[in-house]
Specification:
Layout: E1 11-24, E2 27-40, E3 44-48, H1 55-63, E4 70-75, E5 78-79, H2 85-95, E6 96-99, H3 111-122, H4 126-139, H5 155-168, E7 173-177, H6 185-202, E8 205-209, H7 213-216, E9 221-226, E10 229-232
Parallel strand pairs: 3-8, 3-9, 6-7, 7-8
Antiparallel strand pairs: 1-2, 1-4, 4-5, 9-10
């Protein structure tokens, strides 16, 4: 009897004919056009490419932080490019965890308060938000740093706080834009390992933008964004 064919899981993210074009004077600056991509639930992909190729722009579009010129982005069966802003904001808060190259911690707030922000925005009571934020800090190994402000933390600790904030609200999709780009090699390795461990623990789907080929090769797939197109690398 012939073996049954492998069935690939339905994509969590499906991008069809996506275009992003900026008007520059009397000319169009095409970042990409007719870009297609599917990312299966639980998959981790890396996107590499030269600076200015549009990698960060693509993450902004997937998260709903920017709008496409044309094309469609589906989350499961929902067309997020058609959502009005209130629904799009709710989608980002509930489904997207974003880790930037810069940690973007609010300096006037403690680490715990920073991590609890997405929960408070969701409307969670303060006590529960603080408890959930503390649990997220424990996951990144910084349970004892909750009362410290960003300026009192090292660069690696700041980025771990940013990871805790991205994951505190229980997202299904993790977007990471050069998350180790501002860190030294040893600290960057530690932060990437932490991200990888937490992704597996939570069974998250992840899209990682990086210039670090060593990190990229540890993902399920590596795609290069070049000339407005995504090409498989590994």
């Amino acid at each position: 009897m012939a073996p049954e064919p492998l069935i690939r899981p339905a994509p969590l993210i499906r991008i069809e004919k996506l275009a992003k074009v900026y008007r520059s004077g009397d000319k169009d600056l095409v970042i990409f056009r007719d870009l297609d991509l599917e990312v299966a639930a639980g998959e981790q992909i890396a996107i590499i490419g030269e600076s200015g190729a549009g990698k960060s722009t693509l993450l902004h579009l997937v998260s709903g932080l920017d709008s496409a010129t044309s094309g469609t982005i589906y989350y499961k069966h929902k067309n997020i490019t058609a959502l009005p802003e209130p629904e799009l904001s709710s989608f980002r808060n509930r489904e997207i965890g974003y880790v930037w190259q810069q940690h973007h911690l609010l300096p006037e707030f403690s680490a715990r308060e920073n991590v609890s922000m997405p929960l408070r925005i969701r409307g969670m009571p303060g006590g529960q938000a603080a408890a959930d934020a503390q649990a997220s800090l424990e996951e990144v190994g910084l349970a004892n740093r909750g009362d410290h402000r960003a300026g009192e933390l090292s660069g690696g600790e700041q980025q771990r706080i940013a990871i805790a904030r991205a994951l505190a609200a229980g997202p299904s999709l993790l977007l990471a834009d050069e998350p180790t780009g501002n860190l030294d090699e040893r600290t960057g390795e530690m932060v990437f390992d932490l991200l990888a461990d937490l992704r597996k623990k939570r069974n998250l789907t992840a899209i990682l933008v990086t210039h670090n080929l060593q990190f990229a090769r540890r993902c399920d797939r590596v795609l290069r964004l070049e000339g407005g197109a995504l090409q498989p690398m590994y």
